[in-house]
Amino acid sequence: MSLLHVFGFGLKVVNLLWMLCCWILSVISMNWFVNDETKTGLLGDGGKMWLMFWEANSCKMHHHYYQYIGSKRVRKTWWRRLLVAWVIGWIMVSLWILWYMSSQAAEKRKETLASMCDERARMLQDQFNVSMNHVQAMSILISTFHHGKNPSAIDQEDRENVLRARESGTGVLTAPFRLLKTNRLGVILTFAVYKGDIPSNATPNERIKATDGYLGGVFDIESLVEKLLQQLASKQTILVDVYDTTNQSHPISMYGSNVSDDELQHVSSLNFGDPHRMHEMHCKFKQKPPWQWLAITTSFGVLVIALLIGHIFHATVNRIAKVEDDYHEMMELKKLAEAADIAKSQFLATVSHEIRTPMNGVLGMLHMLMDTDLDVTQQDYVGIAQASGKALVSLINEVLDQAKIESGKLELEDVRFNLRAILDDVLPLFSDKSQGKGIELAVYISDNVPEMLIGDPGRFRQIITNLMGNSIKFTHQGHIFVTVHLVEEVIDFIDVETESSSRNTLSGFPIADRRRSWAGFRTFSQDGSSRTLLASSPDLVNLIVSVEDTGEGIPLEAQSRIFTPFMQVGPSTSRKYGGTGIGLSISKCLVGLMNGEIGFVSIPKIGTTFTFTAVFGNGCSSSHDYKSRKFSNQSNAIFSEFQGMTALVVDPRPERAKVSRYHIQRLGIHVEVVSDLNQAFCSISNGNAVVNMVLIEREVWDRDSSVSALFINNTRKIDHGVSPKLFLLANSISSSKSDAATSGVYTPSAIMKPLRASMLAASLQRAMGVGNKGNPRNGDLSNLLLGRKILIVDDNAVNLKVASGALKKYGADVVCAESGEKAITLLTPPHQFDACFMDIQMPEMDGFEATRKIRDKEDNFNNSIQNGDASAEAYENFPNWKVPILAMTADVIQATHEECLKCGMDGYVSKPFEAEQLYREVSRFFQSTSNVIL
User: Fold this and answer.
1) Average of pLDDT values for 663-672?
2) Which residue did the predictor score with more confidence, 498 or 757?
3) Is the CB of residue 355 less than 8 Å from the CB of residue 895?
4) Backbone angles phi, psi at 110, to 5 degrees
5) DSSP string of 857-891?
6) Which end of the chain, C or N, has fewer beta carbons within 10 A?
7) DSSP state at residue 417
8) Which of 734, 865, 718, 144 has its CA nearest to residue 726?
9) How far is it, in rounded angstroms, from Cα 637 to Cα 569?
10) Cβ distance 97 to 298 under 8 Å?
11) How is residue 500 annotated by DSSP?
12) Are 423 and 449 in contact (CB under 8 A)?
C-alpha cells in the first residue's frame, strides 16, 4: 500500500466521522429549535418514532426547570467523557498512522538496498565473466592458430598487425571478424613485448630488433557494449564489500572497508564459475535513514484535524447548551411578559372603569343640570365643567388606543354607515372654537362618494377628529377645510400645478398645496397597476380625505417626527396648546388598518394639509349581506318640506360657494350661485323662477351698507310672489350683531358656520315656519323610548341615578336594580320589560354571569312553550322571550366587547354615554312611533 493510499484512507475516515457527528448535531438541533412538522419533513417517516421518544423525554425538561438543570449536568458530564475519549482515540490513531507509514518507508528502503546490491553483484559477475571470456577466447585462438603449427598461424593471419605493433610499440587492432564458435564480431588486440627498456624516441628498426614476443587478446564488442549500458542504469552509490566465503567461519575480505553508519545490510551471492569457491557481496547505505517527514506530518495533520473537529463539536454543544439556557430564560421572561401584558390589560380595564365610572356621574349630572333653570353664569360654569370632563374622557380614550396599538389588539369593525352623517357629527365638536376665532370651518364631500359605506365609522371619525383637532388648535385666521373625494377623481390631476390659484381657497388665504401631501402614496404610482386595481374593484370604495388649514405650520426640523408617539413640535407646544402627542400616531395606525396611507405638507406661517386614503366597502351594493348599524339619522334624511324650493347663494369665492351649494342641495333645494348683490337682485326679479331664500356671505353684506340696504328695499317691492327669505352666512355671531348695530341697516337672520344639513334645516325651518322646530335627535329618542319599560342594573348609586334620569327624560319607564341577582329575578320570564341596561363590573355576580343566567332562563321558558308545557296565549301570544340586554360599562377594551357578545348581550354602551350613542343602540331594537323620516 502506497503512502498516497494511506493518506486517502485517513481522510475518508475523518470525513465519515465528520458527517456522522454533523447528522447527530442536526437531529439534536432540530429537536430543540424546529417544530414538529418541519422535523418530520427533514428526517422522514422513519424518524418519527425516534422523535416521539426524544420529545417524550425532553418535554419534561421544557416544563420542569429544575429537572432540566439536573439533566443538563448529566449531559455535561457525559459530553466531557466523550470529548476525552475522542482526543485519546485520535491520538492513538495518529500514532498508528506514524508507525504504519514509517514501517512502509523502512520496508521500501530495504527493498531499494537489496535491488541495488543485487545489481552490483550482477555487474561484478558480468565483468568477471567478460574477463574470463577474453581468456577463453585467447585459449581458443592459440589452440586454433598456434598449437602444433610451425610457423604459427597467428603470425600468418595477423602478420601485418604484428609487424605494425612491433614497429609502433602500441596496441594494434585487427579488422572485425567472426569469432570462432559464435556469431558475434570481435577484434584482436596485439601488443609487442620488448626484451628491455628502449628509449621513447627509438626508431622502428630499433624496436624490431628489441622485440621478444607478442601479447594479444580477443574482445567481444557486442558483449562489452551491453554490459556498459547495464552499468549506466544505477546512479545511487552504496558501500560494497566482497568476501570469499569458501570457509564460512573465516571469510576473506576481498574488497571494501565494511564501515557504515547504517545498520541495514543486504547480502548478495556471487558466482565466478568455480563451484569450489564461494563468494558474497555485502551492501550498506553510506548514511543513516532520514526522518520520515511524510509520516510525521500526516499523523500530526490527522491529529490536528481530529482535535479541531472535537473543538468544533465542543463549541457547538456549548453553544447549543447556551442557546437552550437562553431559550429557557426567554420562556421564563415570556411568561413574565405575558403575565405583565395580562396585568396591563387588566390594569387598563380597571383604570378605565374606575375613571369612567365617576366621570359618568359627573358628566351625567352636568347634563341633567343643564336641563334645569340656570342663569347665564351658571350655564357657562356647567358648560366649562362638561367640556373639561369630555376632554378628560377623550384623553383616556387616546391612551387606551395607544396601549391597544402597542399590544396589537386594535381591530376594526365592518358595519354599514353614512359618511356624510359622520362628518356632520364631527363639526359641532369644533364649531364653538371656530366661531370664537372667526375662522372658516367647512366640509365638502364629492357627489361621487356613495351614500353608504362599509367599514369602521368610529375609527374613521377618530381620524378626522384628531386631524381637525390639530388644525383648530394651531389655526388663528383663515380656514379649516375638510374634503372627501374618490381616488379615481384626483388621480388624473396629481401633476397639475396650482400655485397660480393658491388664492382661490375657502378663505382667500394661501395654503400648502394638498397635492404635495399625497405625492409619495403608492396608490398614485405611475405604472398604472393601481388604476387597474381601482377600476377592477366595484365593491371597494377608495377615498382620499384632506384636512387643510392656514395655521402656524410645522417647523421643518420637526416634520420628520410628526407621527412619533408622544412627540410634539417643541416643549412649549404641550404647555401652550395641551395634548398628549399621540393623536397622529394613532391616526397613522388606523389608516394603515384601513389599507390606506397618510401624508402631509406643511409650510411654516402658511399652513398644513394632511391627506390620507382609506378603503371601504360599497354600502350601496346589494350583493353583500352586512350587519347594519345606524350612526346618524341626519345626513341621509330627505326633508320633504324643502322639496322644489330654490335658493340663491351670494358669494364671490367659488370654493366657498361650492361648499354652501353642497350642504343646501342635501336638503333637496335647487341652488344657484352669484358673486354679488346686484346679480342676486337680477336673478330674483327676472321672474324665470321663484327664489325662496337668499343666503348671503357676511363678507358681501358688510362690504357696502348702502348696497345692502338697497337690495333689501328692492326685494321687498317684488310683486310676483312672496319675497324670498334672507339669511346671512357668518362665522361669528358677535361680529355680525355689532356690524348690524353700528350700520343701522336691517340684518337678515344669521346662519352660523360651519354648515351642516341638520343645523341648516333647523335654521330654515324656524325662519320659514315649516317642519319640526324641535331638536330632531331628542324627538327621535322620545319617539323610541316613550312608554318603554327599561331595567337598569348597576351597583353604583350615582350611575343608576344618571342613567335613569337620562332615560326618563325621553319618556321611558325606568326600574333600577343594584345587583345581578335582582336583575335575574326581575327578568325571569314572563315579565314586562322592553330592554335592560346591564353594568359589567359588579360585586358577587358580574354582568356577564347575570346575562348568561338570564339567557338560560329564557331558553328554558321558550323550550317549555315549544314542547307544550306552557301556553303562549297565556303570555300575550309571545312565543319567544328574549329581552334586549345592553352592556353598560366604563371598560372600552375590545376583549370586553367580544366577551359581551359571547355571553349573550345585544349591544355595548360605554360610560359616559350621550344621546347620540344611546339612540344608536336603542334604535336597533325599538321602532319609532313618529312619522319623521330618518
Assistant:
1) 90
2) 757
3) no
4) -65, -45
5) HHHHHHHHHHTTSS-SGGGTT-------EEEEES-
6) N
7) E
8) 718
9) 42
10) yes
11) G
12) no
Cell numbers describing residue 910:
360605554
DSSP class of 557: G
Proportion of the chain above pLDDT 90, given as a percent:
11
CA distance 244 to 173: 36
pLDDT on residue 931: 35
Percent of the chain beyond pLDDT 70? Answer: 69
Peptide bond into 204 cis (omega under 30): no
Q: Is the dihedral of CA 755, 759, 763, 769 positive or negative?
A: positive
Indicate the average pLDDT of the chain: 75
Q: What is the pLDDT of residue 527?
A: 52
Largest CA distance in the chain: 192
Query: Which of 625-634, 669-678, 803-812, 839-848 is predicted with the least confidence, judged by mean pLDDT?
Result: 625-634
Gap between the Cα atoms of 807 and 800, Å rounded: 11
For residues 313 and 26, what is the distance between their CA atoms, to the nearest angstrom? 12
In whole angstroms, what is the distance from residue 630 CA to residue 621 CA? 17
Among residues 500, 552, 533, the alpha carbon closest in space to that of 613 is found at 533
The better pLDDT of the pair 63, 589 is held by: 589
DSSP run (H or E) holding 545: strand 540-549
Give the helix ranges, DSSP H, for 34-150: 36-43, 48-63, 65-145
User: Which residues, 6 or more positions from 911, have their beta carbon under 8 angstroms from its beta carbon?
Assistant: 356, 357, 359, 360, 799, 888, 889, 890
The residue with cell 596485439 is: 190
Is-cis flag, bond preceding 358, omega within 30? no
List the 252-255 sheet strands across, edge first: 252-255, 239-244, 279-284, 265-270
CA–CA gap between residue 596 and residue 616 (Å, rounded): 10
Contact (CB, 8 A) for 153 and 146: yes
Task: Quickly state the pLDDT bin for 822 (edges 50, 70, 90).
Answer: very high
Q: Are strands 725-730 and 749-752 parallel, antiparallel or unpaired?
A: parallel
Instruction: Calculate mean pLDDT across residues 120-140.
Output: 72
Statement: residue 610 has pLDDT above 90 = yes
CA separation for the pair 584, 600 (Å, rounded): 11
Residue 521 grid coordinates = 402614496
Look at residues 245, 249, 226 and name the one whose alpha carbon lies nearest to residue 122: 226
Residues 6+ apart with CB under 8 A from 922: 781, 784, 785, 835
Per-residue pLDDT, averaged over 308-325, amounts to: 86
Angstrom distance (rounded) from CA 673 to CA 237: 126
Query: Is the alpha carbon torsion for 627, 631, 635, 636 positive or negative?
Result: positive
Listing DSSP states for 577-621 in one string gives H---S-HHHHHHHHHHHTT--EEEEEETTTEEEEEEEEEEEETT-
Distance CA 528, CA 544 (A): 18
Overall average pLDDT of the 88-117 stretch: 88
At 412, the amino acid letter reads: L
Three cell numbers, residue 655: 370654493
Task: Reply yes or no on whether the pLDDT at 880 is more than 60.
Answer: yes
Mean pLDDT of the 19-39 span: 47
pTM score, whole prediction: 0.54
* Number of Cα atoms under 13 Å in the Cβ half of residue 926: 26
> Are the CB atoms for 468 and 443 separated by under 8 Å?
no
Structural element, H or E, at residue 445: strand 440-445
Q: What's the rounded mean pLDDT across residues 198-221?
A: 79
How far is residue 772's CA from residue 779's CA, in Å, rounded to a whole number?
9
Q: Inform me whether the pLDDT recorded for 58 exceeds 50.
A: no
